[in-house]
């Protein structure tokens, strides 16, 4: 498969879409009143879980760009899991919200670096 190079507004839109998807999907499992999520598997029946990390790993978008962004967010949750052992759902939600807030700031004309 050839490399895909995306920049500018198209990349920002992809980040916003993926961040919203991760926030709504993984965020639904957060807390004691969180919902259980069904994850379809290529073999056997679906896995029903409330673990945000498993839900995060189960998100498989069709678009290659979206898949790359999801893997980037999943990497932050994986590092949280490796170093702390807990808080992966919160880490995924915070990462998604940081992306959405940064997008709002960029859209408002603020500097991308600061």
UniProtKB/TrEMBL annotation:
GO terms for biological process: protein refolding. InterPro entries: Cpn60/GroEL, Cpn60/GroEL/TCP-1, GROEL-like_equatorial_sf. One of its GO terms (molecular function) is ATP-dependent protein folding chaperone. SUPFAM superfamilies: GroEL equatorial domain-like. Gene3D superfamilies: GroEL-like equatorial domain. Keywords: Chaperone. The keyword Chaperone applies. Together with its co-chaperonin GroES, plays an essential role in assisting protein folding. The GroEL-GroES system forms a nano-cage that allows encapsulation of the non-native substrate proteins and provides a physical environment optimized to promote and accelerate protein folding. PANTHER family: 60 KDA HEAT SHOCK PROTEIN, MITOCHONDRIAL. Belongs to the chaperonin (HSP60) family. Forms a cylinder of 14 subunits composed of two heptameric rings stacked back-to-back. Interacts with the co-chaperonin GroES. This is 60 kDa chaperonin. It comes from Wolbachia sp. wUnif.
């Amino acid at each position: 498969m050839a490399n895909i190079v995306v920049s500018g507004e198209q990349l920002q839109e992809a980040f916003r879409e993926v961040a919203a998807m991760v926030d709504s999907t993984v965020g639904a499992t957060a807390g004691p009143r969180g919902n259980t999520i069904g994850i379809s598997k290529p073999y056997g029946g679906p896995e029903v879980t409330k673990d945000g990390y498993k839900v995060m790993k189960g998100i498989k978008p069709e678009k290659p760009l979206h898949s790359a962004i999801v893997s980037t967010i999943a990497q932050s949750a994986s590092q949280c899991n490796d170093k702390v052992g807990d808080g992966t759902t919160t880490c995924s939600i915070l990462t998604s919200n940081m992306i959405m807030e940064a997008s709002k700031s960029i859209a408002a004309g603020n500097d991308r670096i600061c």
